Amino acid sequence: MNQRIQGQGGFSERGLETLTQCIQADIDKGMIPGASMLIAHGGKTVHEAALGLQDPNTRAPMSRDTIFRIYSMTKPIVSVGVMMLVEQGRLLLSDPVSKFLPELGNLKVGVERVANGAPVLDLEPALQPITVQDLLRHTSGFTYGIFGDSLVKAEYRNAGIAHPRMSSDDFVRAMGQVPLMYQPGTVWEYSHSTDVLGVLLERVSGLPLDEFFAQRIFKPLGMRDTGFWVEEEHHHRIAEGFDVDPVTGATVRMNQPRRRPNFLGGGGGLMSTMQDYLQFAQMLANGGELGGNRLLARKTLQLMTSDHLAGMAQARSGQGYLPGPGYGFGLGFAVRTEPGASFIPGSVGDYTWSGLAGTYFWIDPQEDLLAIFLMQAPEQRNHYRQLFRNLVYAALQ
After folding, report:
1. Are 284 and 363 in contact (CB under 8 A)?
2. Which residue segment(s) compose the domain that 161 sits in?
3. Does the reported pTM lie above 0.70?
4. Considering its fold, how many domains does the chain have in total?
5. Which 8-state DSSP code applies to residue 93?
6. What span, in angstroms and rounded, lies between the C-alpha atoms of 374 and 71?
7. Which residues of the chain fall below pLDDT 50?
8. For a disulfide at 184, which of 1, 10, 130, 316, Cβ 3.0-4.6 Å?
């Protein structure tokens, strides 16, 4: 254990100790190299721990300023940026995306059928345009090529979508050439939608995505260590995973954060620290404001954390509905809609998202609670999301 701050603040001291001991025990067993975790209650940090190793190869210990690949925890930051432009009157949620990205104006939907015993892909016109709202709530019809398999996903893989050497313009052109998985506005499908939003932010603001974030979000919130790459003088702070996952035996593959990528991926490209992401999450928990800096209006954030899939009959019928039972999806977050149904504790109205390498956060407005868990162990991400949440709520008095 490298760093730890603990105070009760509505939590059982014994419960917090159990949380730390449980994660440390798994580190000691060699299941994960290390982890950082934080709980804030009523706007104050009540528990923080940096456990195990930041880098299992160098044996550097985890610390409070360790820098993590946060992958899809980038998505809520992009979503906030988009809604800031909505508040400025620069765009509307109902606007067709092709208004800003004309490369996406003539999309087709891929429909699989069987011919002579083999699957083939037919293309049909999109019945309605993709809107900004569709991108924010993952109902655009876009997909990823890495989760599950289909003929459409194969098209994405073959096109090399979102390759780090692509430019933003290259990416949008490529997205305009691959078929959609579903008709826009019908089915939730995890996808490159937020990458598209990142390019939309660039086009509308006139700024590269890193500069937009730095000026409009990171500087006002004091997020000094968050960006799309890590400068050389801070390379020693980057968290790394095992080369091979000790549980599954899979080779651990993560992105290279030590140089500026050509494509600044709004869907998953950021690096950040526990303290930086706390600033962002606390701004959300405060209703859009932190330290006198207001990024979003209270009602805008309320809109973002409402279920935007309500009333959509097919919304959860896709190949994999990642928010899970008991959750809908808002504008950048999974949003809890039922007290039961889910296999994890929480409150109606809590909202959350996570990252591929094992990063995770949620905000529970009913309990005035936020919690963050950061590690670099992609194969173990699902297990520790559930474990961490279970232990946090078990400690809540």
Report:
1. yes
2. 67-228+264-277+308-337
3. yes
4. 1
5. T
6. 11
7. 3
8. 130
